[in-house]
């Protein structure tokens, strides 16, 4: 379940960068 958190973090970073 820790992988989901990592994925969410990546998505959040991408959205912030985009």
Write a structural description.
With 18 residues, this protein is mostly helical. It is built from one helix and no strands. It has one helix at 2-17. The termini are far apart. The mean pLDDT is 90.
Produce the secondary structure layout:
Elements: H1 2-17
Structural features:
single chain, 18 residues, 1 helix, 89% helix
* Count of DSSP strands: 0
Contiguous runs where pLDDT drops below 50 for at least 5 residues: none
Give Rg in angstroms.
8 Å
> Helical segment tally?
1
Globular, elongated, flat, extended or rod-shaped: what is the shape? rod-shaped
Backbone structural class:
mainly alpha
Brief digest:
With 18 residues, this protein is mainly α. It has one helix spanning 2-17.
């Amino acid at each position: 379940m820790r992988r989901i958190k990592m994925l969410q973090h990546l998505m959040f970073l991408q959205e912030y960068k985009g």
